[in-house]
Please model this.
Amino acid sequence: MKSVALAIEARTPHGIAAGISRLITTGDLAPGDRLPTVRDLAKELGVSPATVSHAWQTLAGAGLIVSRGRSGSFVRTTPREWMPRRYQRLDVSLEAALDLSRGTPDPALLPRLAPVLATLEPHADTSSYRAKPDIPELHDLLRASWPAPVESITVTNGALDAIDRALATLVRYGDRVVVENPCFPPFLDLLDAYGLEPVGVELDAEGMIPSAFAAALASGPSIVLLQTRAHNPTGVSMSQSRAETLAGLLKRSRPAADAIVLEDDHSGAISAAPDVTLARTLPDRVLHVKSFSKSHGPDLRIGALGGPRALVDRVVARRLLGPGWTSRTIQWILHALLTSPASIAEVDAARDAYVERRLALRAGLDLPHGDGINAWLPVADERAALVHLAAAGIRVAPGGPFQLGDATAPHVRVTVGVVPVESADAVAAALRAAQLAG
Model:
């Protein structure tokens, strides 16, 4: 193992943390390796123990090391064995003064539940295991707001549940799946779990790049999995013209003649972009998914899957052998939130607030145009950026778990939606500095 002291170029807390970070990145310090004690390293470097302690705190805040009390400090090993592989790399269990790593909405901008709960019946509908899985009132409301005419809709426990259940009925081990690159890490973990091969397609400001999409279709995929609006992590929203272009390419592709499109609209109600879908061109080959977690509350765990009846019925039939349906009580809560004038106004205000916060950050930072609550920030060095921001009390998500293959352009994902406007200048300054760290 390379000497820790020799790798440290600057004897400041930031310099010490950066040196250790480089050793971890290169593999000279492996997961589980014990670090020198604070006193020993301080003596070797000729600095105070407080200086080294500050560097250790920065590294811990970036998720690179962990303290085990009297046993010492160690390079962090793979966390949380119960978590999928890419989820592990997004571990956000450590605290920060400002946590911009989670990709979750601002709790203060979610609609209030108390007023709508007061309007519900006092007894839950638990009378039958064989009743239709969706309450008719919510089903009709969803159908009226769907981005294209749809044959069938079923309510699910959020977007990822819908996509999981669709994959379970549509794919075979070894199938190829076209995905965006960068991509939402749980999608990639899900593909791993089913033994599927992801085929990545780069993005521009309007969505998947057509030439790259056409090349991916030549691989003969069984599924095209994409996010229509507020793409996580980039914030890109697909234009309707791009949707039509991609649908046309898919329609003419012989290798992908049987491919089904799975569309994830996870931030619809708080997205400023129009609702789009490839189903306007390919109604028989598109399953569109809507989630209300970002707009109405992650803990509601509710979304919807819509598309051709033959495909949706397969999902519904398979689900009856497991959880059966999404709680009808929760469905009534969502219906109330979607029809209450006060709740509608709260969600509209949240959408406007997210737009305002993104614009406030862009005023002091060369932030790519985007939508929703996340942004994809290019950096010179991912690890150095994480360490630099941790030292400033800011936590962001590493870009590696979002990317397929070897990342040639390092990035971090920043949940810009939780940055108050009054803090935008200071956060933008810290992000600018982190972009250059390395």
